[in-house]
């Protein structure tokens, strides 16, 4: 699934909407996306539970941050303790690492598929613009493709 317009925020919420009349179907269904790389320590308001949990998930290797989050939130302290106990058990740690690797592999595959889809869309837009006679420079600027790629595409279409 690709979101048509990318937000700069790390947390975005979506609801179901009727497209013609912009009528919301229900407020009982929301889809939340949390993009960990977009939240930095400087941005985080650690008084906000979502920011605290996001930083907990993101910053496991920062012990000072983990201590601070554990002091401020009993649920995070409990989660941290459970993770530390699991890390001390070699078998549990191995199972966790295998599961994490599977999740990361799947995430990587999805990300690569998303990038391929974006590239495919850009190339299709460039093809259409070339057929309409747009300049190579304008096409490169509009699509974000390198000028060299647009030039190669133009040569390919000219054959």
Strand content: 5-15%
Topology order in helix (H) and strand (E) letters: EEEEHHHHHH
**Structural class of the helix and strand makeup?**
mainly alpha
* Uncertain regions spanning at least 5 consecutive residues: none
Helicity level: 55-70%
Query: Shape from CA axes?
Result: elongated
Keywords:
159 residues; 61% helix; mainly alpha; two-stranded antiparallel sheet; 6 helices
Describe the structure.
α2 crosses α3, α4 (90-131) crosses α6 (147-158) and α5 packs across α6 (147-158). The relative contact order is 0.06. This protein has helices at 49-58, 63-72, 74-88, 90-131, 136-143, 147-158, and strands at residues 11-15, 17-18, 23-24, 30-34. A hairpin with a 4-residue loop joins β2 and β3. The strands form two sheets. A two-stranded antiparallel sheet has the order 1-4. Helices cover 61% and strands 9% of the residues.
Short précis:
The protein has helices at residues 49-58, 63-72, 74-88, 90-131, 136-143, 147-158, and strands spanning 11-15, 17-18, 23-24, 30-34. By secondary structure, it is mostly helical. Helix 4 (90-131) packs across helix 6 (147-158).
List the helices and strands and how they pair.
Layout: E1 11-15, E2 17-18, E3 23-24, E4 30-34, H1 49-58, H2 63-72, H3 74-88, H4 90-131, H5 136-143, H6 147-158
Antiparallel strand pairs: 1-4, 2-3
